[in-house]
Amino acid sequence: MAVNYKLYQCKRAGKFNGKWYARAVHNGVIGTDELAEIMQRNCTLKKSDIKAVLTELVEVLQDELQNSKRVRLDGLGSFKLGISSSAAETAKDYSPVKHVRGVHVLFMPESKADAGSRKRSKVLVNGTRLAELTNYNVDKTVAEASGEEEGGH
């Protein structure tokens, strides 16, 4: 198995315009039912037990995050909530109702130190292989320089 990618050309004005980059291509979504089915085949638990645990995990994760906790799942990573906020001129002028634009979830994958080096690697991406998607059109012989299509890098 490999992570599929396709090439795209940056069309934004500036120093990256016309440069080529890889973009991950996702070929579907896997939900709780499908995960539980796979997990059932790999262990002694029944699908219904796994779904119950995953459902409860989501509820407890939400409660603990909203209680200002960072939640670490060993082997997976840590979750915490972040806040997007606009500035106030002074601390006295700051109002959450006026200045908070939103709350979002931040995820940091678990990382481990590589033996014999100072490098750290993220557990979820260790051993990832890449493969270029085969069923899309991109002309690798001619660099397109026109800015017709909007897009970022």
Automatic annotation (TrEMBL):
<dbReference type="GO" id="GO:0003677">
    <property type="term" value="F:DNA binding"/>
</dbReference>
<dbReference type="InterPro" id="IPR041607">
    <property type="entry name" value="HU-HIG"/>
</dbReference>
<keyword id="KW-0238">DNA-binding</keyword>
<dbReference type="Pfam" id="PF18291">
    <property type="entry name" value="HU-HIG"/>
</dbReference>
<feature type="domain" description="HU">
    <location>
        <begin position="1"/>
        <end position="113"/>
    </location>
</feature>
<dbReference type="InterPro" id="IPR005902">
    <property type="entry name" value="HU_DNA-bd_put"/>
</dbReference>
<dbReference type="InterPro" id="IPR010992">
    <property type="entry name" value="IHF-like_DNA-bd_dom_sf"/>
</dbReference>
<protein>
    <recommendedName>
        <fullName>HU domain-containing protein</fullName>
    </recommendedName>
</protein>
